[in-house]
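Async update (no meeting this week)

Hi team, since we skipped the sync, here's where things stand on the single-chain job. The sequence we agreed to prioritize is pasted below, unchanged from the tracker. I ran it this morning and attached the output directly underneath so nobody has to dig for it. Comments welcome in thread, and please keep replies under the output.
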Amino acid sequence: MSFEKITDQMISEVYNLLAQIDNPDDIKIFLDDLCTNKEVEQMAQRIAAAKLLTQGNTYNQVIEKTDISSATLSRVSRCVKYGKGYKKFIK
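Output:
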């Protein structure tokens, strides 16, 4: 059995498929197939942490409210400060 290397084209296909989905129920169906429950939970936790950071909560408050690890929170914080995605989609 041979496996393909993960290519930029394959990753682009994920983005394109997600962009085609236009309602939350279909996104849930797709993510249920694509991700484990834990992966979806981790994404939800990161979004919650980003919201809390943008609302002015401290690291300790965010950790207390979300149970996120300090390493993951540090990454989320960098993305909130310097990235584009959280700024664009989290109000």
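Quick observations from my side:
The chain is about 75% helix and 0% strand.
The radius of gyration is 16 Å.
Reply here if anything looks off.
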